[in-house]
User: What shape does this take?
Amino acid sequence: MRTLAAVFLGLALFISAAGAEDARPVEHRGAWVWARSCPNKVAADAMLARAEAMNLNALYVLVFHWGATAAYHSAILPVNDKIEEGFDPLGYLVAEGHRRGMEIHTWYVNGPCTSQGGAAPWIFQKYPNWRTVNRGGQWVEWFDLCQPAVRDWQTRIMLEVLQKYDVDGVHFDYIRFNGRGICACASCREAMRRQTGFDLSSLCYAALPAYGSFNANPLAEPTTARILVQFDNGVPAVAVNKVGSGRVVLFNWQVEDDPSSAVNRLVLSAFEQLGTKPGDLVLILDSDINAKKYEHRAFQDARRWIGEFGFRTKRVGDNDLAKLPKGAVVVLPGFYLMQDDQAKALLAHVRAGGGAVFFDGPVRAMKSEAARTLLGFARTGRYFHAGRILLPGPDAEGWIPRHEIAITTDTESVKMEKWDAWRKDQITKLVAQVSHEAKATKPDRLVTAAVFRTKTAADNVLQDWPRWLREGLLDYVIPMSYVATAAELDQHFAWWKSLDPQLERIIPAVGAFKIIKDRPAEERARAVAEQIEVCRRQGAHGVVMFNLEGIDDATASRLGQTVFATKTRPYRPKRK
Ligand SMILES: [Zn+2]
Assistant: This one.
């Protein structure tokens, strides 16, 4: 009886909650959209119609990206070549969006800058030193936000739009670095030395021991593998396993994340051991099976990084593993979900004299006997994310570069913290500069940012957004919570509420594209709505969806009939 009453009570609450949402007068309902998806009036109208079908009231329009080109009429930037001549996507979206009751925010990608064609983007051809450099001394196609000249230029771009167009806000994205290892360029070294007395060269190891911040999905218990390099806690770091007439090299962490000169040297040596050198062809696996769960990032990062060494690279897919050219070297980045038949195919390839290099342990594959034989390890170890030191291992061979400098995690982590703090300050300076100038130009326009959803992830890319909120530099942030289920989303609110109990300045983002991707059409709207309901139940003042392109028309119109059934005014936080 009690159970039945509880069911009725639950049902009643559910109904009243569902009813209450219709009366909600103010709720931020946004979506990101690429201006390049609106190269002409017809395409722009289709996007606007989709947003209108969902009763959205805010669009974040990507206007600066794609090799430093613009999706508006700029005095500073060339217009992107995908946009039809004479058409001004931003101007059109501002006019038509406003007419439909939508705020239009301009969205900027502040960090990465690459061009589609392969040549360096025009801005890096003009100012090659505006790119970042990693600890290994390689260029990374990412704006060096630590340089005042770069910050001034980006501020001019973001302010130009605010002056010329009646936009409702400017929105930062990728306002961060690409991991812990950049920027170690000459300008940063000199500025740090001058400002803090700290010599960054002391963190750019060219030999072992070498300190770093590691994300590792390690394998444990070597059987036939020999340990060339180990972490200071004894976990194998680099191992080689001889199988038949070939070899398998395992880098037991996400090696492409933060390569120092020493790590670069280890990777080059590993390729050398497998009989290949810069200029040769290396195959790189881009596994669709893995990408379903982990996306394609590991492949993209590995291809870019290996390319930097001067290797020619070629993508291979899951099915290609069964027919690799004899003797070829194949790199397997983030290949966590290696299937048993793939392990068998790789085993046959290596036995016959081929080479395989794993970047990070294939931790979900170790139930397979073929995988264990291939790697020469017995099982999966424990994931770690930590500052550690790489040391020569028990089977270190002549190719391990060594130096005599004694380092400990304590001495090195203090240096790392100094470097982190300085870089966070530099990125914060760009946020502050744009914010102050934007508020001086048009005080009622919003300055916002898309940010990483967890403290660890934000720290790892030097994105100090809690400070940006604390100091009132931003009107609100949008943590990108692209998770597949409502339960996962729910877990992120605890940290956000510890920073902002009423969620006045934190509007969660929902990864609609991700929710929709693998679901049948009839389940999509309900699954997206579930996450929107989590945000409401947690007291959020709205939600932003990534991305308008990733939501099909049928799902959009279903959302517009259910969870977003009535029009609302967009939420605006009080001025700080
Ligand atoms: Zn730099």
Notes: The chain has 19 helices and 22 strands. Confidence is low (pLDDT under 50) at residues 1-22.
